[in-house]
Design a protein that fits this description.
The chain is 36% helix and 14% strand. It has 14 helices and 13 strands. The chain has helices spanning 37-48, 76-91, 141-160, 175-180, 195-198, 200-213, 235-248, 274-280, 284-297, 309-318, 332-340, 350-354, 358-364, 377-381; strands spanning 9-11, 14-16, 20-22, 53-60, 95-101, 118-119, 123-124, 135-138, 165-169, 219-224, 252-256, 323-325, 345-348. The strands form 3 sheets. The chain has an 8-stranded parallel β-barrel, surrounded by 7 helices. A 3-stranded mixed beta sheet has the order 6-8-7. It has a two-stranded antiparallel sheet with strand order 1-2. Helix 2 (76-91) links the parallel strand 4 (53-60) and strand 5 (95-101). The radius of gyration is 19 Å and the shape is globular. The protein starts with 8 loop residues before the first strand and ends in a 16-residue tail after the last helix. The mean pLDDT is 95.
Length: 397
């Protein structure tokens, strides 16, 4: 019998009021890298709307792990402001997770401690051209060990800040994803080659974080089903990775896809808001690049409800651990279908940006669905003043 998505549930030792997770979507609410009142209110509103677990997006595990200088990184000074977020969520009856990541070579951060960013292999970094960082070099053993420790230290600070879980970002073309992808990992040492070697860094990060947070603390791993471009990680490797993460002690896997530098809208699906993205861009040179080449580089993918489900079924058949289905879940019927397919949790992004109270309404009405129309202008809004739904302006984008 399928699980009831709206009944209390457990994730490792954490009790949740339901099985709906607000997935990490970059909020754009950390001016100068520090959590703001807007970030507190954003997640408080989601918790008040009924989500079981809300995820604070992309917190870099070190200053060099930021994709740009204004991004949040986990350090002692960040703990107290983040405690305001978790306290607000807890007062509304929800739980909070912090997504921890490192950008690797995908960065335009002018405050890097090194001139060139680091990644698994020598690489081009088109994202960093404007910042004078068009190339990345391969990490050495000392740098790899430091990143592992950075993830461990950051997870300890996250727990100190009151988070109930952490999510390790293994997807979307950031550092751990760069190591996992055969297109960007061309190493010949123990961190490159087959999927077991390419997964080694992710597994060592998971091991170190588990040592820090303890046995019962939930560690979610967000991993790609496909990178979404030729030569990238494909589903057979994703299935093998899921098995490795299960053996390695992950509490749950969040199944996603796409590689931000190569297939950014593979994750979003729906309209490509290129004009809005150009308008939001602060760099005049980057505006010009987007206007000239954006339509060629940023491919548009048609939206379908539950668009990752066919690939996610392959992972479901391969592991027994809890899985979180993500991608195009916009209605109670989608949530119930995910439970019927054997997934323990669902994650929603744009639907909850459009309707923060969606979970509460879904619990009481079988016909409830989000008003989100997949215009994706919220992607541009992240860079203007913080993620939000433009339908609130009465605009039909």
């Amino acid at each position: 019998m399928p699980l009831d998505a709206f009944a209390p549930a457990h994730l490792a030792d954490l009790s949740l009021r339901n099985r709906v997770i607000k997935t990490a979507t970059y909020e754009g609410m950390c001016p100068e890298g520090m959590p703001s009142d807007a970030l507190v209110e954003h997640h408080r509103e989601l918790a008040a709307g009924g989500v079981g677990l809300t995820t604070v997006a992309y917190c870099a595990v070190s200053p060099d792990g930021r994709t740009f200088a204004e991004q949040m990184s986990m350090r002692p000074e960040t703990v107290a402001p983040l405690r305001r977020v978790t306290d607000a969520v807890h007062r509304e009856g929800g739980a909070a997770s912090l997504q921890l990541g490192h950008c690797g070579w995908f960065t335009k951060n002018a405050e890097l401690s090194t001139w060139l960013p680091r990644g698994p292999s020598l690489s081009l970094n088109p994202y960093g051209i404007v910042a004078g960082r068009p190339l990345a070099v391969a990490m050495n053993a000392r740098e790899i060990a430091a990143v592992i420790e950075d993830f461990g230290r950051a997870s300890g600070l996250a727990r100190e800040a009151g988070f109930d879980a952490v999510e390790l970002h293994l997807g979307h073309g950031y550092l751990l994803s760069q190591f996992l992808s055969p297109a960007t990992n061309r190493r010949s040492d123990g961190f490159g080659g087959g999927i077991e070697a390419r997964a080694r860094l992710s597994l060592e990060v998971l091991r170190r974080v588990r040592e820090v947070v303890g046995a019962g603390f939930p560690i979610l791993c967000k991993m790609n089903l496909r990178d979404g471009f030729r030569g990238g990680l494909e589903l057979p490797d994703a299935v093998a990775l899921a098995r490795l993460l299960e053996t390695g002690g992950a509490s749950a896997l969040v199944l996603t896809g796409g590689f931000t530098s190569k297939s950014p809208f593979y994750l979003f699906r729906g309209r490509r808001p290129l004009e809005e993205m150009i308008a939001a861009e602060k760099s005049r040179l980057q505006k010009l690049v987007l206007r000239r080449f954006g339509a060629r580089v940023i491919r548009e993918y048609p939206f379908e409800e539950m668009f990752f489900l066919p690939q996610a079924r392959e992972v479901r058949a391969a592991v027994r651990m809890p899985l979180v289905l993500l991608g195009g879940i916009v209605s109670r019927s989608n949530v119930e279908a995910a439970m019927a397919e054997g997934f323990e949790f669902v994650a929603m992004g744009r639907a909850l940006i459009a309707d923060p109270d969606l979970v509460r309404r879904m619990a009481g009405d079988a016909g409830t669905r989000s008003r989100c129309n997949q215009c994706n202008v919220c992607v541009a809004e992240m860079d203007i003043g913080g993620v939000r739904c433009v339908l609130d302006d009465g605009v039909s984008a």
